């Protein structure tokens, strides 16, 4: 299920910091994927549906270069990715085996994948940067995936950075990392998040003008009224 | 697929220590599930086919007491377990939420489950011990599973204690913890393991008689000949 | 503020497993103190008000044997503990310096302290067991507190095992470890917990009688009715 | 208590590497705060008195957006910070909840706070960089503080990165991270540190000229004499 | 260099808790080996010279069953151990490969080795217990050493549980774990430790009699005088 | 034993990612040193023989500034390093004490050391960068080595980042970190690695041209034939 362009546009203007605050107010405290750092500084925010991949630990009879030709390989998973999706890879936080290198990332880029998000690492970091695919992960490592991981499936529920992600949940990722918006909460969250972002911009302006924090952030009734008036 | 009683009998006489040595000689170094300690000291060795369960991290919209009534709950998984299986639960090593308590373990016992193995913990430790179900895990914690975990499925490939386990792999578990024998290697491994166990018993006797280690363990040709002769 | 004996009696019959479930239903998922294991197996459940102690890391100019004679020492803190309290010691999870040894624990016992709970360790484990003080912690270590910790104060808010504990919160601790009930929630929680415990006992009986889990645990309307009828 | 400008000037010329060596020679081995990395590369060295803040773990009844309006909120703490201080925030090493975002950092900057040092992380990293406040911490995370932390007080003794920091201790922070000079040792340490820095500069010059290390670093009597002569 | 029986007798009456306090007063804060827990509860205190063994991580071309027959194998190291020594094994804290099993421990027992101390684990835990060799370590694991470790040498300086141990240092190990006394400090430490143990016994008696802690522990001048008088 | 310039030239064109794949196919899965990140982004690949250094944990009687003048100091080790070697320092993964600062790195640079690789950290990071010595490690810390480490020897087998390294093994290090090629496998590995690198370049070109992954990476017979033809 692709994502409405209006929602992409709206969320592209909302920071993951704001989104996590809004989700926490709805009772969701665990939506930020630990270890999802931008591979390249200053990558623009990305919004897309989650396409999930799942690894289990390496076992020498399964995690072999030969497995790369199997019908359930990472290669097959990549060929199944729709344009605009955000690939979310559960690598169980493993940091000494790279899930993908330059060739797989180049292919994802070709297929129009919007971003790669993982709690693991990539390999051939320089090559991956060269492909232009936006990547958020824990960093780089030289060894191939099979040195530490066995690929098992795609489009299943996964854990990524300590967060549950289901296929078709919405992922937003920026300088602060990756956040999941559960698919069922999307319509409720978006307008609140957009408004919250606006309010914070006004508060920031007030602080720049020398205002003190108590009563302003969060705003009391008087401050809210001033904000409303300022929209005038 | 149940397990032939002959294989159960054979493997019941082989320690997990010996099994890991035999598997390592076949190139498999990562078959012992970290954190699988016996909840009760001195539990007899258990052998059975793996029946797998899989959790992802808790998300407050999913990991709720209400989820316990869902068709994909741990309750439903337990009702699907065949007698004689070893339940292998991927709890991602989480130690602050108990996967099962006394009620679920009592039901597993009733269904003839041979053992519960997990890289997580159980809750109501005293109650679980009371059910008589043999359990290997990281210990106990009071909170319910939904405090840290979302249950997603059963009979899928899982990671448990850093080891890949597939449904129907064979699990052997004793005082040293749980070991997986890949289903495809079973027939090859069993006779070698039985013989290795016999050889180690003879070596132990030699050491008790005052023999030095070099040349004896591992045995050189002369020692092997003496062992053969001793079989009379 | 001491604790009403009726509440102590009521909570003495409720497991920490049940308490965490009840608190989770009120939105509190983080109330179980990680690492609080009984030093002696089979210690009875303890209920009491929290008396908190706080350490920061060791700095060689502060964490010295001389500091043990200071007015803000652990010795002074112990002399301030009321009978019946549960001492909750924030040791920041440090496991290589023992917060207390046999002498301090003997004195706590003399003063009628109900239990010692910490995310750290004690020292002279054999001596501490000898004092009869019930202790829940991560284990034992030989070195004195000042090898790793600087004591700073008592009766302040602390973190213990990843959980916030405030003076006069209520602590319940059994084989599964220590749980905090926020003081303000006590009256609301106790009756629900007692009822939940009763219900689980009935469910356990049903399982013993061969009932399957779905519909029973958690109970659907029909099961609830049968439970009510059974109270007859 | 503000810091004499002469001391600021002197310490501004001394690296934290040199300071830790000088403090170790006085018996203090644990003065460097782990995890205090510059958020922006190449930030100049900062020297100031410590203004401490303390968090405990999040508990859902306390760690709420509503708590931000409480009299003991981080907002109130910031309004109490004197110009020139270094805010030292004990976040217990938590890296999945940001202690402050752009608004709070902007206000600290307005108040003349010299730097923010924490063993936790900030949120809205891009926004924080935009405020110009010099920050040393473990990095960034999107979630608000209340997702993982409960704020409890300011100007108490704290632990930060495994180091004890008391209000009014002196903090020096540069590319290598943050170091505490206990207030009582300040006068003794400063002249030794300045001289040590001078000596190391001379040794570096000697190495550049091709000198071998033994006898030079640390300098034997002959080398010391040459250094003295070079001051000529 | 064997250890004088008088010193063994003296140290056999001193707890590791007391020893670490005495060593800390001499400036040594890091002498207790983390992770050295007794494999069997209630093992008597052991005192002996350190005989060190060193592992590095496993590399598949080196860490093989064939390596067990090499001249630098653990087998050869065991044959070099003198009676009465304490074997101190640097396993780098690895807990998923057992350094020794029942056969090697049986041989050590035969050679009169006083105890085995390691920051790693043993395998075939039941078998090791059966040999009667006193063992302090992190627990048990099924896999052989070569699954995670490459043996490289004996009688070299090693790290064990985060502590530096040199051949011929003195090791004391009891319920609280293992402590190193640097060989050069032995003569100075022993009499102080014996006296400290005596003083603590007297203090414990005072506490049993109802004395409060301040002024007693540590004793002020008046308490010291009373202790002296009590020696009568 | 220095390294043939032809081998240096060949390996300078092979990424560590490719090398780890080739070594894995030979059964070596554990050859990449965890934590070896480039101190300066974009450092060129370095190839050289390993010159090893070994630390154990700090003990206050040994790890002193005075030890820097000892005959077994890091200073002496540096003076023994041959030009072109890669210094591999086993710091046991310690990240709160810097193994070397600007002066030692400047001297290594003078002696023609090709690179410094460690699983620990350096100190005076700005100064170290100024020396121009290529460094791969976990980052920077202010404290001197003796705050956490005792230097014991050079040119022994060591562990670095969880990998066994022997003197004269070959080290290749680039943006993805450091990889060891066991000395005995060098001749076999080099030509395979060079060819593998060439094949991956061709595959990358195919992907750029829009080819799908299955059958291409790894190449099936048809793809291999096309690659051969392309060499034409």
Automatic annotation (TrEMBL), chains A, B, C, D, E, F:
Stretches that traverse the bilayer: none
SUPFAM superfamilies, A to Z: RraA-like
Ranges in a coiled coil: none
Entry-linked InterPro entries: RraA/RraA-like, RraA/RraA-like_sf
Gene Ontology molecular function: metal ion binding
Keyword flag Magnesium: yes
Residue positions binding Mg(2+): 124
Keywords: Magnesium, Metal-binding
The protein's name in its UniProt record: Ribonuclease activity regulator RraA
């Amino acid at each position: 299920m692709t994502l409405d362009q209006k929602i992409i546009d709206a969320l592209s203007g909302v920071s993951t910091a704001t989104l996590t605050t809004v989700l926490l107010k709805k009772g969701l405290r665990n939506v930020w994927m630990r270890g999802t750092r931008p591979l390249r500084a200053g990558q623009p925010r990305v919004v897309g549906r989650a396409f999930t991949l799942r690894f289990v630990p390496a076992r020498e009879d399964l995690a072999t270069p030969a497995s790369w030709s199997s019908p359930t390989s990472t290669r097959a998973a990549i060929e199944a990715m729709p344009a605009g999706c955000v690939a979310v890879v559960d690598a169980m936080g493993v940091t000494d085996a790279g899930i993908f290198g330059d060739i797989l990332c180049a292919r994802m880029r070709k297929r129009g994948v919007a971003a790669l998000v993982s709690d693991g690492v990539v390999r051939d970091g320089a090559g991956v940067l060269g492909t232009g695919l936006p990547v958020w992960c824990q960093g780089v490592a030289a060894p191939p995936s099979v040195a530490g991981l066995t690929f098992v499936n795609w489009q299943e529920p996964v854990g990524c950075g300590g967060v549950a992600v289901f296929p078709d949940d919405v992922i937003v990722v920026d300088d602060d990392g990756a956040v999941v918006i559960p698919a069922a909460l999307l319509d409720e969250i978006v307008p609140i998040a957009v408004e919250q972002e606006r309010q914070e911009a006004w508060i920031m302006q007030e602080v720049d003008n020398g205002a003190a924090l108590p009563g302003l952030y969060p705003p009391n009734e008087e401050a809210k009224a001033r904000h409303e008036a300022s929209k005038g």
